Amino acid sequence: QVQLVESGGGLVQAGGSLRLSCAASGSAFRINTMSWYRQLPGKQRELVAAITSGGSTNYANSVKGRFTISRDNAKDTVYLQMNSLNPEDTAVYYCNFEVVFTTSPRQYAYWGQGTQVTVSS
Hints:
By secondary structure, this protein is an all-beta fold. The chain is built from no helices and eleven strands. Strands 2, 4, 5, 6, 9, 10 and 11 form a seven-stranded mixed beta sheet that branches. The chain has a four-stranded antiparallel beta sheet with strand order 1-3-8-7, with no helix packed on it.
């Protein structure tokens, strides 16, 4: 089994910055794509940013130029640096890892517990 633990959310003023982290624990696996999603109350979860095992990234149009996703494969950790935050970025942010265990070729999706990001105007 794999567990994901997120950290770094909080309250920030518009224009400020936050850095989210998500670390995986467990053994005998590798991680393909690592992603960040966010969800507002009553809305569907939306992709914010993703990074492949090779380092390729993609971003939602709404965060391009402001957010940066990165990963540390040695630590099984993904980061989301969020700059120039605005109130529309307020949401619960979730990390998602695509995991393959050494004992099986199948890929599994794991989610973090979610961390609240609130941007005040």
